[in-house]
From TrEMBL:
Keywords for this protein: Antibiotic resistance, ATP-binding, Cell membrane, Membrane, Nucleotide-binding, Translocase, Transport
Name recorded for this polypeptide: ATP-binding cassette domain-containing protein
GO biological process per UniProt: daunorubicin transport; doxorubicin transport; response to antibiotic
Keyword match Magnesium: no
Family matches, as SUPFAM superfamilies: P-loop containing nucleoside triphosphate hydrolases
A GO cellular component entry from the record: plasma membrane
Entry's localization field: Cell membrane
Compositionally skewed regions (Low complexity) per UniProt: 323-333
Region (Disordered): 313-340
Superkingdom to which the source organism belongs: Bacteria
Membrane topology term: Peripheral membrane protein
SMART domains reported for this sequence: AAA (SM00382)
Presence of keyword Nucleotide-binding: yes
Length: 340
């Protein structure tokens, strides 16, 4: 984020407990205008709770929130007027047709009748729901309902949209349609706050990703920055016989061998230069390889590493949260100090 880029969502020290259970233990979130922010976390991590607080649906126990220039403490109505929320539970009314649902939203947003009709027609078109407009949403597929739900959110032309697990349960094709719709919104200047359990979704859509675990944001950064936070990139070489494997193991210091599979894992960040270096070494030593694969850490690895080893992560998260922003080589990132 550049210093003068306007901020759409700014939360500091957000806290929420249910009885004895601390769900959010002082989290900070900053989302620049016109960007996508993804909040990731295991089941029950507090993602929905965060969305509900930021979208004024429930009250926090502590912390400050500004959304679209409005302060939650003094101007919750201002926030409500500027945002759209699509939750895990659909707002679609099954007693109305798809079109009537949209028209109802237009009424609730106080749009003049003609404007409401124009906007409804445009959204039915945009989400490929024209043929289904007159039908009852009970007859819709899950993907169509989700599209109608998002269309209903867009009737009020919100500047900031909260999408709580927008594609959970959707087939891959419908998921891609939703992703395209989300990208279209962002291209038009809308800010998206997304929660998801699909790491691929965060990878595809988000400018910045935060991992929420045990009430803390344990890591935050771009997808590439988060992937650099953990070790695990390697080139896997397979050989036809043990002698080749032996020779290769001597050639590549720091490699890990798998004798049963006649394979060797050579640490690598997966870029072309390191691949070329490995091939050159093999060539010089005249070692034959039967198979070669490059493995770069994906967000699944990051997720597992950061939420699966809570004690290591907690030690650095204690002073705030870990930012990937300034981390270049971060193989030992779990012990890094917070830089923000
Ligand atoms: N109204 C409530 N009363 C008591 N506990 C609650 C309430 N709402 C949420 N919780 C608890 O707070 C924790 C966080 O819930 P939340 O729904 O925010 O998690 P989540 O990350 O969105 O999970 P999921 O991915 O499963 O939707 C859970 O342990 C949940 O049981």
């Amino acid at each position: 984020m550049t210093p003068d880029q306007p901020t759409a969502i700014a939360a500091t020290g957000l806290r929420k407990s249910y009885g004895e259970q601390t769900v959010l233990d002082g989290i900070d979130i900053t989302v620049p205008e016109g960007t996508v922010f993804a909040l990731l976390g295991p089941n029950g991590a507090g993602k929905t709770t965060a969305v509900q607080i930021l979208s004024t649906l429930i009250e926090a126990d502590g912390g400050t929130v500004r959304v679209a220039g409005h302060d939650l403490a003094t101007d919750a109505d201002g926030i409500r007027g500027a945002i759209g929320v699509t939750g895990q539970f659909s707002a679609v009314d099954n007693l109305l047709t798809g079109e009537e649902n949209l028209l109802l939203m237009a009424d609730l947003n106080h749009l003049p009748r003609a404007e409401g009709r124009r906007r409804t027609a445009e959204l039915l078109e945009r989400f490929d729901l024209v043929d289904a407009a007159e039908k009852n949403p009970m007859t819709y597929s899950g993907g169509m309902r989700r599209k109608l739900d998002l269309a209903m959110t867009l009737v009020g032309d919100p500047k900031v949209i909260f999408l709580d697990e927008p594609t959970t349960g959707l087939d891959p094709r419908t998921r891609r349609i939703m992703w395209d719709a989300i990208r279209g919104l962002v291209a038009g200047g809308v800010t998206i706050f997304l929660t998801t359990q699909y790491l691929e979704e965060a990878d595809e859509l988000a400018d910045r990703i935060a991992l929420l675990d045990h009430g803390h944001i344990v890591a935050e950064g771009t997808s590439a920055e988060l992937k650099r936070l953990i070790p695990g990139g390697h080139i896997r070489l397979e050989f036809a016989d043990p002698d080749e494997l032996d020779q290769a193991a001597r050639t590549f210091a720091g490699s890990t061998r798998d004798d049963a599979a006649l394979a060797l894992q050579v640490p690598s960040d997966g870029d072309v230069n390191s691949l070329r270096a490995v091939l050159d070494h093999l060539d010089v030593a005249s070692i034959e390889v039967t198979n070669l694969t490059v493995h770069t850490p994906d967000l699944d690895d990051v997720f597992l590493a950061l939420t699966g080893r809570p004690t290591e992560v907690r030690s650095s998260a204690g002073a705030g949260h870990q930012s990937a922003e300034t981390t270049d080589t971060a193989a030992d990132s779990t012990t890094k100090e917070t830089v923000r």
